[in-house]
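Notebook entry, structure prediction.
Reason for the run: the old model in the group folder had no record of what sequence produced it. Starting over properly, with the input documented here first.
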Amino acid sequence: MSTTNKYCIIGGGPAGLCMAKNLKELGVPFDAYEAASEVGGLWNINNERSSVYETAHLISSKKMTEFKDFPMPDDTPDYPSHRILFKYFVDYAHHFKIWEHYILNTSVEKIEKEDDKWAVTLSSGETKVYKGVLIANGTLSEPNMPQLKGNFTGEIIHSKEYKSPEIFKDKRVLIVGAGNSGCDIAVDAIHHGKSVSMSVRRGYHFVPKYVFGKPADTLGGLIKLPRKWKQKFDSFLLGWFVLDAEKYGFPKADYKLYESHPIVNSLILHHLGHGDISMKTDIDQIDGKKITFKDGKSEEFDLILLSTGYKLHYPFIDQKHLNWKDGSPQLYLNAFHPDYDNLFIVGLLEATGLGWEGRNEQAKLIAHFIKAKENNSDKYKSYLEKLKKPFPDMRGGYNYLKLDRMAYYVHKDTYRNYVKKEIKFFENA
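New structure, fully documented this time:
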């Protein structure tokens, strides 16, 4: 079949795989491209775009993360490692027979508009014209590199480059930024480094992995409360299970619980309580190996690890095609372009507890829209009108932090309930 009658999927991570599965189930022809030699996305540690490290595990439990139609085996740990997850995605590709649609070791270098289609240039040098494009290259691969004042003469890396704690051996380590990766890596570092410090400028809310002997995220829906009462109740409950982070040097969080992604790591507070990690304020100046902090204190370090997050990165397409504004593409349900009916981003969403099933539902809705477009149905035409209207608010009443990384954050239940209704719109005759 000519590619002009096919769709193009970019990426073989969770979003790309479930997009491929949903298109296949509806009989929509497609090709899928993955730059690495295997599918799995960031969970394939051998993928040069991967941001996982040797000790990386899920921070949400398997039951709250897995695909509903492809549950993890019963003997899978509550919080599986990247190795288990990599195998899970390879098995997923084979189980749903989408493996044969993937062209591996091939990256997409450029996407350009060509009449009512898209010209896709590959790393092989070929350019193929596709009926539509589904971008699913992930959100955690392009490091956000802060500007540090001064010149550091030691070693400096981003957490994206971090793979093994051996790099900390006998070094004075400073981790800049916290977040889930920063806290995980700090716990790694204390077993190898000469000393470990963390420099942070913002406070965080901490959530343990287990509450009452159960994965914490499996208990979240047992008591139904209005948003503001849920925030208060959960904050009160968490006080029983986690140490007071402020007592050990973390700034006080200047936002309420769930208004940013919490840190799911009890060990970081455990080691702070044991004096294994020292907290520092924001960096003011660097001179050689000497670092002066905003509170005026100075100390020497051998290695700086920047746990400063990631930024959205679509180098193969001009931002003018993505309706870009305020740090991210502005798309209906974080997926549908208001002007193009054949360009989508899959997996451009984050939410506490969303899991891969939430992304699968998004992909299912996209696939139904494409199928309706192929049939030129009345539902397709009416949906086009919807894409022109103001986008529905998917924040669920939460006042999320005004940060680029929060620009595509949604409230799990609000988003999933809305998407399910949209799917029913297409499914019902």
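Summary: Residues 150-306 form a domain with the FAD/NAD(P)-binding domain fold (CATH 3.50.50.60).
The old model has been moved to the deprecated folder.
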